[in-house]
Amino acid sequence: MGRILALGLLMVLLTASLLHAQEVIELREGKWQNVSTQPTTRGSTTRLVFASPELDEIESLIDKDQYKAAIKRQIKWFYSHKGSPVFDRGLMLMARALYGHGDRLKAFYYCDELMTITRPANTSTKR
Length: 127
What we know:
- By secondary structure, this protein is mainly α.
- The chain has a domain at 53-117.
- The chain has helices at residues 2-20, 53-63, 67-80, 87-101, 104-117, and strands at residues 25-28, 31-34.
- Strands 1-2 form a two-stranded antiparallel sheet.
- A hairpin with a 2-residue loop joins strand 1 (25-28) and strand 2.
- The longest helix is centred in the first third of the chain and has 19 residues, at 2-20.
- The radius of gyration is 25 Å and the shape is elongated.
């Protein structure tokens, strides 16, 4: 009787542990990867940090609630920095400035553009 009870308890514990171990996947670098098997640190890949003093100044204008001045400077920045590696930050700052200024529809369109350019290359969108 004791062996049957012990065997039953062991089976219940194993079943519970198997149900608890769920597979978790994340989209990393354009590929779906299993989180439990992949390392969380990326030692082989390094991220470059691009400094942009102009965008820092625009962000400080937004923080000071000077939205109109930030929008004007951001438009000039867009024309002079096409293809910049920090173009996505520029889009986000423009959306923040427009939202603060009260033009929420245009802010939405800038956020939509931001989502379009940051989508991984191997995913296709059908509209």
